[in-house]
Amino acid sequence: MATLNENYLKLKAGYLFPEIGRRTQSFADAHPDAEIIKMGIGDVVRGIPRPVADAMKDACEELAHDETFRGYPPGQGYDFLLEHIAEHEFGSRGVQIETDEIFLSDGAKCDSANIQEIFGLDNVVAMTDPVYPVYCDSNVMAGRTGKADDEGRYAGLVYLPCLEEADFAPPLPDRHVDLIYLCSPNNPTGAVLTRADLARWIDYARSEQAIIIFDAAYEAYITDDSIPHSIYELDGAKDVAIEMRSYSKTAGFTGVRCGFTVVPKQVQVVSADGAQHSLHGLWNRRQSTKYNGVSYPVQRGAAACYTPEGKKAVRELVDFYLANATIMRKRLTEAGYTVFGGDNAPYLWITCPTGLDSWGFFDKLLNEANVVSTPGAGFGAAGEGYLRLSAFQHRHLVEDAMNRICAL
Ligand code: MLT
Description:
The chain is an alpha/beta fold. The radius of gyration is 21 Å and the shape is globular. The chain has helices at residues 16-30, 50-63, 79-90, 108-114, 133-142, 195-208, 237-240, 279-290, 296-304, 308-334, 358-369, 395-406; strands at residues 37-38, 102-105, 125-129, 158-161, 179-183, 211-215, 241-246, 259-262, 268-270, 276-278, 339-341, 347-351, 371-372, 374-375, 386-390. Helix 10 (308-334) packs parallel to helix 12 (395-406). Strand 5, helix 6 and strand 6 (211-215) form a beta-alpha-beta unit. The protein folds into 2 domains: 12-47 and 309-406, Aspartate Aminotransferase, domain 1 (Alpha-Beta Complex); 53-306, Type I PLP-dependent aspartate aminotransferase-like (Major domain) (Aspartate Aminotransferase, domain 2). Strands 2-8-7-6-5-3-4 form a 7-stranded mixed β-sheet, sandwiched between helices. It binds D-malate. Residues 41-43, 109, 187 line the site of D-malate (MLT). D-malate binds next to loops.
């Protein structure tokens, strides 16, 4: 009989968002008349911007004709898109990224889960607590951890508790680590890393010869001009950091799927014999073996985000969700809740009322307000006592949800 990768048995029973979906469904089954408002998983609700949708439509039409048909896309992506990314995402901020340092993919989730397989199992991995569960679970699956304790902390991982008293900024590890996952703007807390924060992390990584896996999927939500959108805005980052981006929360691509990872050529990993290897070459090898690239229509759609009309439409979408977050923050604060995030991120991080833990508050909102949220404890032990609300919802539903929560 086929045997199991025993590491899978260390995982919690279900991934966080399907588990929330399951609880929501069982509530809906028991209360068929309830008008449930979903503010749990960060899934966008507005239509894809018209210029982007039109570009995808035109690309589909090209594929329907022998003369303009295209088969396998180039492994890292078509130049027409890579050039836009290098210019608009990085060049415009004074950062030089070569087009062949960009790897298109089906999203930051997959890249952030897959990247760990290039690294040896003996690497010491640090991640924030709370954390986007993908970073943690992918390392558990690979066998880089022991079992979880009663609070869900896996043996062998170095947790960086992000506490309210420190504005949810992750502390530097108090020991050597090899891999560091950072996310700014942060999912789930909505906190951002300042230039000074990032400079400290880059110094740490350089002195420990560690690699930073920087998830910038929410960078478009930064409203504070002093906050870096890319880790490469900081000197020295190109030696020690890779960066992930996504079109999911900007162009509405959660279902369409497209993102990219920047792997600068100078980032190095060492083998057991002491030789250094370029992470760029290894990621290229991995992707070309296991992945066939992003489809042509999707790449055309992503490229249309960089035309003047596309940029304007994407900005309007992001601003719409940010305005939701502002409304939510204001209403909840007025109602007496302690609220963080929502100013540079589409997520609000809310302190649970006295006497309720994260899942208790989740249940209360679901049962009494029919609003779906995400319990902070689902993102790690330090998330206990908090709850996340997503601003990705239609305006009238945001207003309804706030009315209901504030009336509790
Ligand atoms: C979230 O709700 O945390 C995100 O939607 C997850 C994701 O982007 O995969």
